[in-house]
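pasting for the record
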Amino acid sequence: MKKNISKIHYEVLDKKKLNLLNQLAPLVKNFVLSGGTALSLQIKHRQSFDFDFFSKTEIPADFLARLKKGIKISSVLVNKPEELTIYDENDIKISFICYPFFKPTDLIKLHNGIKLFSIKEIAAQKAYTIGRRGTYRDYFDIYAILCGQYLTLKKIIKVAEEIYDEIFNPKLFLEQLVYFNDLTNFEIIPVKGSDKTPNPEEVKSFLENEVKEVLKDWK
């Protein structure tokens, strides 16, 4: 059930975001792009507005100064060794995060040299986040991966266990995956020319069926 990624979908980025990504390229050689943007570049499932870069080491003390030489920064939201979050001149949010579970095995490289986590690694990150209460976008991303048959739910759990070891709880993840009661902001903006975006009820129903199949095999 694994689809091959035949191309990178640069069309999910508008001109400002694509220009920013190119400007960032020489500055982020020690980082890997993750999150919804990295996933959408691979499967074209929704628009994403932020850039999340992960590193296995803390953010260098002089990194902000180096960034300012390459891009125009309008504000700094967080500036700590474990995270630097900024907004550029076009209010695009960019985060640089020290990620202690950094175990990339299958990186994707863009034309400008920027590296992306693979679908399976992003899926595992989303599973870990959902187990600790994520946003609706995280649920939608898992839905898109499963619905597009890029991975099975069992495979996502397996990869998450390999990356996060005992701190990932598969049972808790499955429970949270079908619990929508405290989620807010259900807006998903589709990519131009893509199929109709399912509503939250459709997403929840699909995920419930997927979870039932996994639990049935676990009994």
